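ok so i was messing around last nite and threw this chain in just to see what happens. nothing serious, just curious
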Amino acid sequence: MASTITLQQVVNLAATHGELMPLTGVGGYQNEPALSLCNDTMQELLAHPHDFKFNRWEMPMFVTGTYQQDYLFAGATAFQLASSTSNQTPIPSAGAQIDLASSSAITVTAGVVTVNIIQGQLQHGITVGGTVFMTGVVMTTGTAANYNSVQNQTGSSWNWTGGWVVTAITPTSFSFAAITGQNNADVGGAPGITNFGWLASATITELNNNSPVGNIRPMEAVRNLAPSQRINQPTKLCHLKTYQNAAGQDTGIIKLRLENPCGPNLWMVNPVYQAKAPIFLSLASTWAPFPDEYSYVYRQGLLTRMYRYLNSPQQNAEYQKLEAAIQKATGADDREMSDVHVYPESSLVDGTWYGNGM
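result:
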């Protein structure tokens, strides 16, 4: 499903249409207006609500925190499961979102691993004596396997392995003794989420439920959610903000909000999103992430944009063709539009719906 067709190839095709005029070098500007029209086409095609399967990304899971509604997330999470210590002191469930590897969120000094959570989060709730698990961690030294825990599923239950007993905490960090492979030179943390476009869907799984398939619930992805003080199982998720640096570049940290803050019973959240559109700098670029078999979509998209640029009366008809192409490419028939429809196993007229003997 690789992309091999270049912008220039599609621009050349569009230029063969009788009504279209030169598309590059207009006004003495190199590659214009073709390059800008290609960028506009791609951005429109990958905007909401066009949920192309080839552009879907599964965001790393994050774990909710007690009474927390908003989450700063960069792709790595830490959590502890409810348990008891050797003297029966209860250990509560807790979740925390790990800071960026570029901010040296995880460091090892004198055999002690220290993990920093993203600044601005609520106090993490991880406790001394509890066992902490981590997922989504990357390391500059390539030892990420020694920092990521593993979820194991059998025919009778599922559980997590590869955890560490917490030896110290601060409001924004926790520490544990390093194991073999975790070295004093290690620096790492979350990878960052820098290609986020828009949220498509999500599911949640109960953290402390170890049944074979877990307690899984769907979540609705929405545009906005208001702050709430009601404690309940989350049913909706929205993307509030993508943080940028002074240069206008994504830092890799995004802000997510649940419809309701959770109580002590915490959840693993698994969002699915559409990646944002790339920015083309050259007509030699390909139309990735579109694979070649979907070339009819962006060809029609560029034709539509070019007729609009020419202020041609043909633009309305071309736009209707584009909408039909998008619908075909996204599989937007009744069976894929929603998973809550009820369909008979066989046709109503194939004879199987009649009673016996009829």
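not much to say yet. The chain has five helices and 21 strands.
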